[in-house]
């Protein structure tokens, strides 16, 4: 089976990149070969070495020196870094899966718009943000029943789960998430807010989604509830810790949904569901891309 796997590498040896590495090591379809960073003393690179992966400490230049390491490259750095790396990866002929809010490529939320038939035509896909992965499915579930005039989301995460990359990307988070709520979720207008909660013990990732529908949501209450439940199951297929925090509230033309995400505890504790949902979504996306590549005969 190993010989049939599609090789992948990760740029970014911080919290997200390291958590992603551990998840990819369990994949039956992807073979993670390398973790790439810029700090040779980082915990991520040391963990990569411990697990027999190639640990590269001079950034994308190291991948350029060993292009055979991967056909798919995950970007887990910052929006600014991916803006620099994206054209290089394209020139190298690599498929890029971007976990930063750079939004160089089209937005992708596996439970909503991951379509295998479109994958061969895409060389760079964007995983939006952790808040986007958690909330866009719920907005889309409502918009599948009624037009959504406005969607507003508040993502609250433990400050302990927000590493330097997350903190550097706060502005990009709000802009990218709001844009994806429209382009993928189906809202006509949108707003996104993120809060870092310093509570101790740390809280799980919690997301509140407010949706204003074009018609009476109460009149379509049963259909909306069924759509939300179905979407919940779709997300849980690859993020088991994703669940409703409370029953959805539907009153007049307003739908309010509260979801929380408990992490798998691969690299960070379970409270870091914000990392878990985006890395899990990235693994799911990479596996579908790999399956498409296998069908095309791209085996290395």
Automatic annotation (TrEMBL):
Family: Belongs to the acetaldehyde dehydrogenase family.
UniProt-listed Pfam families: AcetDehyd-dimer (PF09290)
Residue numbers annotated as active site: 130 (acyl-thioester intermediate)
MF terms (GO), sorted A to Z: acetaldehyde dehydrogenase (acetylating) activity; NAD binding
Coiled-coil intervals, chain numbering: none
UniProt EC number: 1.2.1.10
Lineage: Bacteria, Bacillati, Bacillota, Bacilli, Bacillales
Enzyme class: oxidoreductase
Organism: Salinicoccus roseus
Highest taxon of the lineage: Bacteria
Reactions mediated catalytically: acetaldehyde + NAD(+) + CoA = acetyl-CoA + NADH + H(+)
InterPro entries: Acetaldehyde_dehydrogenase, Acetylaldehyde_DH_C, NAD(P)-bd_dom_sf, Semialdehyde_DH_NAD-bd
Residue sites binding NAD(+) per the record: 13-16, 161-169, 274
Record keywords: Aromatic hydrocarbons catabolism, NAD, Oxidoreductase
Protein's UniProt name: Acetaldehyde dehydrogenase
Domain Semialdehyde dehydrogenase NAD-binding intervals: 7-120
Residue stretches spanning the membrane: none
SUPFAM superfamilies the UniProt entry points to: Glyceraldehyde-3-phosphate dehydrogenase-like, C-terminal domain, NAD(P)-binding Rossmann-fold domains
